[in-house]
């Protein structure tokens, strides 16, 4: 494949917005999509059938003066992975742009996307900055290291703080990730990932799977959305997680790392997360430091939950291959879920 430049686009763009019990946030997102300089060809809102508040709100949105085809797609299964897979099955565009219901794409978002994919036929995936507003305040800052996995296995996202020129990356963030349909092919989000609502690391898993097929993946800060993190209606809250949710997060992370890192790198990651870890995913050192500072024995409970999830992932990774490997054999996790 070679890079080409075109002055007019022939690409069609589908925008996917999975949503659950956030009608006010969804309205803001759809308003932002109506204001795009380059309109979407279709917008797919993926909602659960029991989410009455969202469906009532969508009756109004469907009757609005939409510059795109607005489609409501129901998912019979709970969780973000099921919603995303249902959207991938239903989307018709050459480009599939995914954003969250609590995000509002900036006015040139789709124009930037169209230009990037039209100008480079080797581009399979694109991400951009999500400007995060927490409790009304912008989390401002600048980071040059974005979308990488360090040698220790530590994930450095920083998509909400990235600056500078477009650059190739290893992973994208779910609030602002865009894929070429031909790069996705039969790939689907991994249905093995645990979690009652927004299964953590589903964006990490999917972007790494697409990258493993050989397509270029780029982060460009100009491809921007405003992001207003909203309440989650599960045990994986933004401010407080249950021990079960912590174990699920560790399970998902280690499952993904074991399947996308080489043999030596995955062992380094295993021991680094066990010995050191991060504040969000504490290893022994972080747990000990927290105990010293707070005298709160709950630190050890968090550590044990993390290790339990990691051990379960190591066991399961040996028995069932990654989603991208299934797709390469003509099978998909999406087909299994259906």
From TrEMBL:
Domain Glycosyltransferase 2-like span(s) in chain numbering: 14-164
Cited InterPro entries: Glyco_trans_2-like, Glycosyltransf_2, Nucleotide-diphossugar_trans
The organism's place on the tree of life at top rank: Bacteria
SUPFAM superfamilies attached to this UniProt entry: Nucleotide-diphospho-sugar transferases
A Pfam family assignment: Glycos_transf_2
Stated name of the protein: Glucosyl-3-phosphoglycerate synthase
Species per Swiss-Prot/TrEMBL record: Caballeronia sordidicola (Burkholderia sordidicola)
């Amino acid at each position: 494949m070679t890079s080409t430049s075109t002055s007019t686009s022939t690409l069609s763009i589908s925008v996917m917005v999975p949503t659950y019990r956030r009608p006010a946030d969804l309205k803001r997102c759809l308003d932002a999509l109506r204001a795009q300089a380059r309109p979407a060809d279709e917008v797919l809102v993926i909602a659960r059938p029991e989410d009455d508040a969202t469906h009532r709100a969508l009756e109004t949105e469907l009757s609005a003066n939409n510059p795109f085809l607005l489609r409501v797609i129901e998912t019979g299964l709970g969780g973000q992975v099921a919603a995303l897979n249902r959207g991938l099955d239903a989307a018709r565009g050459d480009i599939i742009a995914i954003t969250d219901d609590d995000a509002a794409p900036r006015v040139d978002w789709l124009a930037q996307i169209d230009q990037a994919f039209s100008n480079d036929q080797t581009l399979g995936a694109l991400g951009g900055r999500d400007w995060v507003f927490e409790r009304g305040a912008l989390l401002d800052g600048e980071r040059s290291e974005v979308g990488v996995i360090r040698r220790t296995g530590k994930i450095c996202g920083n998509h909400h703080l990235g600056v500078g020129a477009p650059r190739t990356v290893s992973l994208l963030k779910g609030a602002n990730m865009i894929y070429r349909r031909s790069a996705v092919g039969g790939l689907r989000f991994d249905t093995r990932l645990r979690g009652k609502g927004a299964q953590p690391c589903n964006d990490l898993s999917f972007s790494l799977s697409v990258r493993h097929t050989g397509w270029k993946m780029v982060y460009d800060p100009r491809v921007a959305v405003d992001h207003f993190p909203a309440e989650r209606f599960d045990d994986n809250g933004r401010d407080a997680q249950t021990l079960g949710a912590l174990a699920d997060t560790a399970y998902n992370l280690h499952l993904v790392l074991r399947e996308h890192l080489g043999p030596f790198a995955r062992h380094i990651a295993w021991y680094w997360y066990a010995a050191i870890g991060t504040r969000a995913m504490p290893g022994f050192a972080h747990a000990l430091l927290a105990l010293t500072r707070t005298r709160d024995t709950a630190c050890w409970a968090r550590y044990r939950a993390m290790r339990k999830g990691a051990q379960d992932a190591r066991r399961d990774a040996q028995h069932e291959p990654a989603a991208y490997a299934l797709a390469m054999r003509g099978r998909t996790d999406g087909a299994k879920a259906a």
